[in-house]
Amino acid sequence: MNNSGKVEVLIPRSLFSFDNQSHIHVDNEGFSAVKIIWKDGKVTNIKSLNKEVSLPKEILFPRFVESHAHFDKSFSWTNFPNFKSNYENALSVNLEEHITRTPKKVLDRAEKSLNLAISNGYRAIRTHIDTYYSQDKEIWSGLFDLKNKYSHFLKLQFVALAQLEFWSSSDGDILARELKLHNGILGGVLVPPFNKRKAEVLLTNTLLLAKKYNLEIDLHIDESSVSPAAGIRTLIKTIDRLKSNVPITCSHSSSILCLKERQILKLGKELAKRNIKVIALPLTNFWLLNRDDINMPLRRPVAPVKQLQRSFVDVSIGSDNVQDPWYPFGDFDPFYLFSYAMPMLQLNPWDRLSLSALINAPSRLLKLDWDGVVMEGCPADFVIVKGKAWADIFSGKISRKILINGEWYKK
C-alpha cells in the first residue's frame, strides 16, 4: 500500500495553514503555490513555493462535503418527469414515484449516486430519504448496509424525511430508535400554508423525540416565495417554549429573502443565538420557485447567504436534487455546484466566506473530524484539477485526480 507522496499545486489561501505564514505569496485570484507532502495518509509538511519559479498548473481542494442530497429519488426523472417544472407538480409526481418504489430501485439509485459522488470528489454526504407509513422497511436496512460498504471512501449521513405527523406516531418512535444506532437524523417538512397551532404541536413532538434519542433535526422549511419565514418563526417560538437545545438545521429557508433587509438581519441574529444552521439550495429553488409561465420573475427565492453570514449564521450551500421531479439536471459533481451556484448567488470564489459555505461549513454541519483546511496532520484527502485560475475550474472541462487517505483513487 503506497499512501505517501507529494505534489506542487495552487491552493486557495483560505484553505491551508502552516507555521511559516510570512513567506506566503497570494496571487490576484487568491491562490498560493505550495508543495504538500504526505505520509501514511496524513499531511506531514506544507511549504510555500517561490513565486519566481514556474508556477504549478494544477489546483488542489480538499475532497468536498455535500450538505443536502436525495439519493432515494436521484435519476428518476426519466420515468417521473415534471415538465411543468414547479413545486406543486414536483410534489405530485414525487408521490406517484412512491407508489412504484421497491428497495432494489432505491438502493440502485443510491449506489449509482455514491459511485458518482466519490469519483467526482466527495468525501461525505448528508442525504435525505423520503419516509412514510407504507414504506418498505427493507429500504432502511439496505441503506445502512451501503453506508458500511462505502465507509472507506465516504462518510454517509441519513436524514429520514417525513411529514411531521410521522414523528408523533409509534412508527416514528421505532425509526428514531433505529436512526440513533446509525447516527441518523430526524427530517421534516414545514412549508406554507400551514396551521400554526397544529405545526407547533407537531414540532413539539418532533423536538421531544429528538431529545429522547439524542438526535439532530434537519427540516425542509420555508421552501416558498410566500409567507416569508413563517416556518422558521414558528420553529423558534416552539424551541423557546420548550427551552430546547436539540441541534437543528433549516434546509432551504428560501422565503427569508422576501423579507426586508433589516428583518433578514434580525432573523439571522435569532438563528445564530440558537445555533441553528442553514443550508441554501439555489439549484432546485431557482428552478422551482416563483415560476411564471409567461414572464420571467427577477426574484428567485433562496436563503440569503451573505446576510445570514453577516449575522453569524453558519450557512452551507448544497446541491439538493439530481435528475428527479424536483430538478432535472446535475450528476453529484461539486464543480457543477460551484459553476452554477456562485454566479446565481453572486459569490466570489476568491472570498473566504464564499468558499466556507461550500467547503468548511458543510464539514462542520456533518461534524466531521476535519473541516477541510489543509495543514500538517490533516488527511491527504484531495481533489486536484488541471488549471491556473478560477476560469479553468468554471470552464466545464475539468480534468481531476482524487486522493483518498493518501492513495490515488481508481474507478
N/C terminus separation: 17 Å
Taking the sheet with the most strands, its summary is: 8 strands, parallel
CATH homologous superfamily annotation of the largest domain: Metal-dependent hydrolases
- CATH domain class of the largest domain: Alpha Beta
Count of helical regions = 12
Number of domains: 2
Descriptive terms for the model:
411 residues; 2 domains; alpha/beta; eight-stranded parallel β-sheet; four-stranded antiparallel β-sheet; TIM Barrel; 21% strand; Urease, subunit C, domain 1
Structure write-up:
The chain starts with a strand and ends with a strand. The protein has helices spanning 87-100, 103-120, 138-149, 170-181, 196-213, 230-242, 261-273, 282-288, 305-310, 334-345, 352-365, 390-393, and strands at residues 5-12, 31-39, 42-48, 58-62, 64-69, 122-130, 155-161, 185-190, 216-221, 248-252, 277-280, 315-317, 382-386, 400-404, 407-408. A hairpin with a 2-residue loop joins β2 and β3. It has 2 domains: 5-63 and 371-408, Roll (Urease, subunit C, domain 1), CATH 2.30.40; 64-347, TIM Barrel (Alpha-Beta Barrel). 35% of the residues lie in helices and 21% in strands. It contains 12 helices and 15 strands. It is of the alpha/beta class and 411 residues long. The strands form 3 sheets. It has an 8-stranded parallel beta sheet. Strands 4-13-14-15 form a 4-stranded antiparallel beta sheet, with no helix packed on it. Strands 1-2-3 form a 3-stranded antiparallel beta sheet, with no helix packed on it.
